Each structure stands twice: as structure tokens, then as C-alpha cells.
Amino acid sequence: MAQSAETIELTYPLPVYNYRVTILDDGAANVLGFSEVSGLSVEYEPVTYKHGWSFMTGVQIVPGMRKPIHLTLKKGLTQNGDFLQIWLNSCYLQPWSVTARRDIVIDLCDEKGLPVIRWKVKQALPTKLDAPTFTASSNEVAIISMELIAADVEADYHPS
């Protein structure tokens, strides 16, 4: 039985190369081009629960505390690309400031550039900014890497 084009579109796996990263900064949306985004995972620390009848019924394993999200963003270094450095410095100078933590939106887009799945990373705080590795015998692009820690991540499979 042949499937309709709409069924194929909804069930076919999405390519990962078409995405957009937006860093929200006091109402402003800064769309930056990153070559790699990793760490969009939610993990709970398992807790073993034992009670008086555990010798008969066995132990229970339940989800415990949620682990923080460790996000890594990588991008090509440009001459006017000091946004990440400024953000990291402002967090260091004002660690208790509300503006130090920012929300990040990562949209996985279809071939038309419309968001299909959206991840919302909440209260991201930069913890590390790596400069590129300099090698005289290489002709690779200079890539910087920023590591962040965040409070929460939500996936929206029907963004509007």
C-alpha cells in the first residue's frame, strides 16, 4: 500500500544539519551560527529505595535529583564574533545578576527553514570558552567552543 506524501514527511527522519541557535538577551534575540551543538540531554540520578519488605519484594529504583544540563556550542571564529566572550565576562563580573543567565532556543528546521522541533534551554550560564588550536601545518577553520550549564531543557515537537 502506497503512503501519502504527508505521511512520508511526518515519519521520515529529520536531517541534523539544518538548525538555528537563538540566544535570548533581555528581550533581544541573537541568532548565531554554530557548527555543532551537543549536550541536549535530560538525566536523573537513580535512587535505590529499600523498605522493610525489600527482602521479599526486592528493591525499588526511582528517579532522584535531576542532573544539570551540560551544553557545548562550537562555532567558527570571526573578527566581529566577541558576543560569547562578552557574555562570559559579564557572568564573571556579575555572577548574581539576573542577566548573567540566558535562555537558548535551538530549532531543528525543515527544508523550508521552518522550525519542526524546538529545544528551550533555560537559565544557561557559560562556564568555559575554548580558543581554537593553532597548528601551522593545518588549513582548518578556527573553531571556538563554549561550555554552558543550564537548569532545564524542554523539547517542543509542535512549535508555532
Number of strands: 10
- If you compute it from the alpha carbons, what radius of gyration comes out, rounded to the nearest whole angstrom? 21 Å
End-to-end distance, in Å? 32 Å
Element-by-element helix/strand order? HEEEEHEEHEEEE
What characterizes the major β-sheet?
Answer: 8 strands, antiparallel
Q: Mean pLDDT across all residues, rounded?
A: 90
Content-based structural category: mainly beta
Strand content: over 45%
In DSSP terms, counting alpha (H) and pi (I) runs of 4 or more, how many helices? 3
Give a description of the structure.
The protein is 14% helix and 46% strand. The longest helix has 11 residues, at 83-93. The model has no long low-confidence stretch (mean pLDDT 90). With 160 residues, the protein is mainly beta. A hairpin with a 5-residue loop joins strand 7 and strand 8. It is extended.
